[in-house]
Write a structure and sequence with these properties.
single chain; 6 helices; alpha/beta; Leucine Aminopeptidase, subunit E, domain 1; binds ligand AR6
Length: about 220
Protein backbone atom coordinates (compact mmCIF):
# COMPACT_ATOMS: atom_id res chain seq x y z
CA UNK A 1 0.00 0.00 0.00
CA UNK A 2 3.02 2.23 0.22
CA UNK A 3 4.14 1.79 -3.36
CA UNK A 4 3.33 4.67 -5.67
CA UNK A 5 4.29 6.06 -9.03
CA UNK A 6 3.34 9.61 -8.09
CA UNK A 7 2.42 10.91 -4.64
CA UNK A 8 0.76 14.21 -3.79
CA UNK A 9 1.08 15.19 -0.14
CA UNK A 10 -1.60 17.38 1.44
CA UNK A 11 -1.95 19.06 4.83
CA UNK A 12 -2.65 16.86 7.90
CA UNK A 13 -0.48 14.11 6.42
CA UNK A 14 -3.12 13.25 3.82
CA UNK A 15 -1.83 11.52 0.71
CA UNK A 16 -3.03 10.94 -2.83
CA UNK A 17 -1.17 8.29 -4.84
CA UNK A 18 -1.27 7.25 -8.46
CA UNK A 19 0.15 3.81 -9.06
CA UNK A 20 0.09 0.86 -11.40
CA UNK A 21 -0.19 -1.23 -13.40
CA UNK A 22 -2.48 -2.63 -10.74
CA UNK A 23 -5.41 -4.94 -10.17
CA UNK A 24 -7.66 -3.17 -7.66
CA UNK A 25 -9.01 -6.49 -6.31
CA UNK A 26 -5.58 -7.07 -4.71
CA UNK A 27 -5.64 -3.79 -2.80
CA UNK A 28 -5.33 -3.90 0.98
CA UNK A 29 -6.84 -0.45 1.56
CA UNK A 30 -9.84 -0.32 3.95
CA UNK A 31 -12.10 0.12 0.89
CA UNK A 32 -11.99 -0.11 -2.88
CA UNK A 33 -14.36 1.56 -5.33
CA UNK A 34 -16.29 -0.37 -7.96
CA UNK A 35 -17.16 1.22 -11.32
CA UNK A 36 -20.59 -0.42 -11.38
CA UNK A 37 -23.79 0.11 -13.38
CA UNK A 38 -27.17 1.22 -12.06
CA UNK A 39 -28.48 -2.36 -11.68
CA UNK A 40 -25.70 -3.19 -9.18
CA UNK A 41 -25.94 -6.75 -10.44
CA UNK A 42 -22.41 -6.95 -11.83
CA UNK A 43 -20.92 -6.65 -15.28
CA UNK A 44 -17.54 -6.73 -17.02
CA UNK A 45 -14.32 -4.79 -16.44
CA UNK A 46 -13.46 -3.86 -12.89
CA UNK A 47 -17.03 -4.68 -11.75
CA UNK A 48 -16.71 -8.26 -13.01
CA UNK A 49 -13.25 -8.63 -11.45
CA UNK A 50 -14.50 -7.41 -8.04
CA UNK A 51 -17.50 -9.76 -7.96
CA UNK A 52 -15.41 -12.70 -9.17
CA UNK A 53 -12.69 -12.18 -6.57
CA UNK A 54 -15.05 -11.07 -3.78
CA UNK A 55 -17.51 -13.96 -4.09
CA UNK A 56 -21.32 -14.06 -3.80
CA UNK A 57 -21.63 -12.09 -0.53
CA UNK A 58 -21.10 -8.77 -2.35
CA UNK A 59 -23.82 -9.53 -4.92
CA UNK A 60 -26.24 -10.55 -2.15
CA UNK A 61 -25.72 -7.20 -0.44
CA UNK A 62 -26.11 -5.37 -3.76
CA UNK A 63 -29.42 -7.20 -4.33
CA UNK A 64 -30.67 -6.11 -0.91
CA UNK A 65 -29.74 -2.51 -1.74
CA UNK A 66 -31.53 -2.52 -5.13
CA UNK A 67 -34.58 -4.10 -3.50
CA UNK A 68 -34.78 -0.91 -1.44
CA UNK A 69 -33.68 1.81 -3.85
CA UNK A 70 -34.61 0.14 -7.20
CA UNK A 71 -31.39 1.26 -8.88
CA UNK A 72 -28.32 3.35 -8.16
CA UNK A 73 -28.40 6.63 -10.09
CA UNK A 74 -25.27 7.80 -11.92
CA UNK A 75 -22.97 9.82 -9.68
CA UNK A 76 -24.23 8.21 -6.44
CA UNK A 77 -22.44 5.67 -4.23
CA UNK A 78 -23.36 2.86 -1.81
CA UNK A 79 -21.29 0.63 0.44
CA UNK A 80 -21.12 -3.15 0.87
CA UNK A 81 -18.67 -5.44 2.59
CA UNK A 82 -15.66 -6.72 0.65
CA UNK A 83 -16.65 -10.40 0.80
CA UNK A 84 -13.51 -12.49 0.21
CA UNK A 85 -11.45 -9.52 -0.99
CA UNK A 86 -8.49 -8.32 1.08
CA UNK A 87 -10.32 -5.00 1.47
CA UNK A 88 -13.03 -4.62 4.11
CA UNK A 89 -15.52 -2.59 2.05
CA UNK A 90 -16.52 -1.95 -1.54
CA UNK A 91 -18.01 1.41 -2.46
CA UNK A 92 -20.12 0.99 -5.60
CA UNK A 93 -20.62 4.01 -7.81
CA UNK A 94 -22.00 4.49 -11.33
CA UNK A 95 -20.05 6.66 -13.75
CA UNK A 96 -21.45 8.46 -16.79
CA UNK A 97 -21.54 6.88 -20.22
CA UNK A 98 -19.43 9.34 -22.21
CA UNK A 99 -21.26 11.47 -24.77
CA UNK A 100 -18.97 14.54 -24.58
CA UNK A 101 -21.62 16.59 -22.77
CA UNK A 102 -20.97 18.98 -19.91
CA UNK A 103 -23.09 16.81 -17.65
CA UNK A 104 -20.67 13.88 -18.14
CA UNK A 105 -17.99 15.79 -16.24
CA UNK A 106 -20.46 16.76 -13.51
CA UNK A 107 -21.55 13.15 -13.03
CA UNK A 108 -17.97 11.87 -13.03
CA UNK A 109 -16.99 14.46 -10.38
CA UNK A 110 -20.00 13.39 -8.35
CA UNK A 111 -18.82 9.74 -8.39
CA UNK A 112 -15.56 10.71 -6.69
CA UNK A 113 -17.27 13.15 -4.31
CA UNK A 114 -20.02 10.71 -3.25
CA UNK A 115 -17.65 7.75 -2.90
CA UNK A 116 -15.36 9.79 -0.66
CA UNK A 117 -18.33 11.09 1.36
CA UNK A 118 -19.74 7.58 1.92
CA UNK A 119 -16.30 6.22 2.84
CA UNK A 120 -15.59 9.05 5.25
CA UNK A 121 -19.01 8.62 6.88
CA UNK A 122 -18.10 5.00 7.59
CA UNK A 123 -14.79 5.94 9.20
CA UNK A 124 -12.73 4.52 6.33
CA UNK A 125 -9.12 5.75 6.38
CA UNK A 126 -7.74 4.41 3.08
CA UNK A 127 -9.45 3.81 -0.26
CA UNK A 128 -8.46 2.82 -3.81
CA UNK A 129 -10.27 3.99 -6.95
CA UNK A 130 -10.21 2.66 -10.50
CA UNK A 131 -10.40 5.08 -13.43
CA UNK A 132 -14.21 5.30 -13.38
CA UNK A 133 -15.97 5.38 -16.78
CA UNK A 134 -12.76 5.02 -18.83
CA UNK A 135 -13.48 1.44 -19.96
CA UNK A 136 -16.87 0.26 -21.23
CA UNK A 137 -18.38 3.71 -20.60
CA UNK A 138 -15.92 5.31 -23.04
CA UNK A 139 -14.66 8.37 -21.16
CA UNK A 140 -11.34 9.47 -22.73
CA UNK A 141 -8.54 8.97 -20.20
CA UNK A 142 -7.14 12.49 -20.30
CA UNK A 143 -10.56 14.14 -19.95
CA UNK A 144 -11.43 11.78 -17.09
CA UNK A 145 -8.14 12.53 -15.30
CA UNK A 146 -8.77 16.29 -15.61
CA UNK A 147 -11.99 15.80 -13.63
CA UNK A 148 -11.03 12.96 -11.27
CA UNK A 149 -7.76 14.33 -9.91
CA UNK A 150 -8.81 17.88 -8.87
CA UNK A 151 -12.18 16.68 -7.51
CA UNK A 152 -10.51 13.95 -5.44
CA UNK A 153 -7.94 16.35 -3.99
CA UNK A 154 -10.62 18.90 -3.19
CA UNK A 155 -12.69 16.29 -1.32
CA UNK A 156 -9.68 14.76 0.44
CA UNK A 157 -8.82 18.15 1.91
CA UNK A 158 -12.10 18.17 3.87
CA UNK A 159 -12.40 14.55 5.09
CA UNK A 160 -12.50 13.67 8.79
CA UNK A 161 -11.31 10.05 8.70
CA UNK A 162 -10.16 9.38 5.15
CA UNK A 163 -6.46 10.20 4.87
CA UNK A 164 -5.08 8.17 1.99
CA UNK A 165 -6.54 7.82 -1.51
CA UNK A 166 -4.96 5.68 -4.21
CA UNK A 167 -5.80 5.53 -7.89
CA UNK A 168 -5.14 1.96 -9.03
CA UNK A 169 -4.35 2.35 -12.73
CA UNK A 170 -4.90 -0.88 -14.62
CA UNK A 171 -2.21 -0.49 -17.27
CA UNK A 172 0.91 1.49 -18.09
CA UNK A 173 -0.87 3.71 -20.61
CA UNK A 174 -3.61 4.90 -18.25
CA UNK A 175 -1.03 5.34 -15.48
CA UNK A 176 1.08 7.55 -17.74
CA UNK A 177 -1.90 9.66 -18.84
CA UNK A 178 -3.05 10.24 -15.24
CA UNK A 179 0.45 11.06 -13.91
CA UNK A 180 1.07 13.46 -16.80
CA UNK A 181 -2.25 15.19 -16.17
CA UNK A 182 -1.47 15.46 -12.43
CA UNK A 183 1.91 16.98 -13.22
CA UNK A 184 0.42 19.50 -15.62
CA UNK A 185 -2.32 20.48 -13.16
CA UNK A 186 0.40 20.99 -10.55
CA UNK A 187 2.60 23.08 -12.83
CA UNK A 188 -0.34 25.26 -13.87
CA UNK A 189 -1.32 25.81 -10.22
CA UNK A 190 -4.74 24.17 -10.70
CA UNK A 191 -3.95 21.75 -7.88
CA UNK A 192 -1.79 22.82 -4.96
CA UNK A 193 -0.50 19.90 -2.90
CA UNK A 194 2.24 20.67 -0.38
CA UNK A 195 4.54 18.30 -2.20
CA UNK A 196 4.65 16.08 -5.29
CA UNK A 197 6.88 13.01 -5.48
CA UNK A 198 7.62 10.54 -8.21
CA UNK A 199 9.05 7.08 -7.67
CA UNK A 200 12.72 7.42 -8.81
CA UNK A 201 12.60 4.85 -11.63
CA UNK A 202 9.47 6.47 -13.07
CA UNK A 203 11.00 9.91 -13.66
CA UNK A 204 13.07 8.83 -16.60
CA UNK A 205 10.42 6.68 -18.25
CA UNK A 206 7.71 9.31 -18.01
CA UNK A 207 10.06 12.16 -18.90
CA UNK A 208 10.98 10.39 -22.13
CA UNK A 209 7.41 9.57 -22.95
CA UNK A 210 6.27 13.11 -22.20
CA UNK A 211 8.89 14.39 -24.66
CA UNK A 212 7.79 11.86 -27.28
CA UNK A 213 4.21 12.95 -26.78
CA UNK A 214 5.14 16.61 -27.23
CA UNK A 215 7.31 15.91 -30.28
CA UNK A 216 4.54 13.99 -32.00
CA UNK A 217 2.14 16.96 -31.92
N1 LIG B 1 -8.28 -3.13 -11.50
C1 LIG B 1 -8.17 -1.82 -11.79
N2 LIG B 1 -8.68 -1.26 -12.91
C2 LIG B 1 -9.33 -2.08 -13.76
C3 LIG B 1 -9.51 -3.45 -13.54
C4 LIG B 1 -8.95 -3.99 -12.34
N3 LIG B 1 -9.05 -5.28 -12.03
N4 LIG B 1 -10.21 -3.98 -14.59
C5 LIG B 1 -10.45 -2.97 -15.44
N5 LIG B 1 -9.91 -1.82 -14.95
P1 LIG B 1 -14.69 -0.46 -16.69
P2 LIG B 1 -16.58 1.79 -16.74
C6 LIG B 1 -9.93 -0.46 -15.52
O1 LIG B 1 -15.09 -0.90 -18.04
O2 LIG B 1 -15.93 2.36 -17.94
C7 LIG B 1 -18.99 -2.78 -16.34
O3 LIG B 1 -19.53 -3.78 -17.14
C8 LIG B 1 -10.16 -0.32 -17.00
O4 LIG B 1 -8.93 -0.49 -17.70
O5 LIG B 1 -14.47 -1.50 -15.65
O6 LIG B 1 -16.93 2.69 -15.60
C9 LIG B 1 -19.98 -2.22 -15.34
O7 LIG B 1 -20.90 -3.19 -14.90
C10 LIG B 1 -10.68 1.10 -17.10
O8 LIG B 1 -9.60 2.03 -17.17
O9 LIG B 1 -15.75 0.59 -16.04
C11 LIG B 1 -20.64 -1.13 -16.11
O10 LIG B 1 -21.71 -1.62 -16.92
C12 LIG B 1 -11.41 1.30 -15.79
O11 LIG B 1 -11.04 0.21 -14.94
C13 LIG B 1 -19.55 -0.61 -16.99
O12 LIG B 1 -18.63 -1.68 -17.17
C14 LIG B 1 -12.92 1.35 -15.90
O13 LIG B 1 -13.34 0.39 -16.85
C15 LIG B 1 -18.81 0.53 -16.33
O14 LIG B 1 -17.90 1.06 -17.24
Amino acid sequence: MNDFTMRLVLADNKRFDLFGPADITKETTDAIVNAANSSLLGGGGVDGAIHRAGGPAILEECKRIVAEIHNLPQGKAVLTSGGRLPTKYVVHTVGPVYFGKKSDAQVLASCYRESIRVADEHGIRTIAFPAISTGAFGYPLKEAALIAIPETLKCLATTTHLAHIRFAMFDQHSLRVYTNVAERLYKSGTIRPLQIERAPHEKEIDGRELEDEQNSR
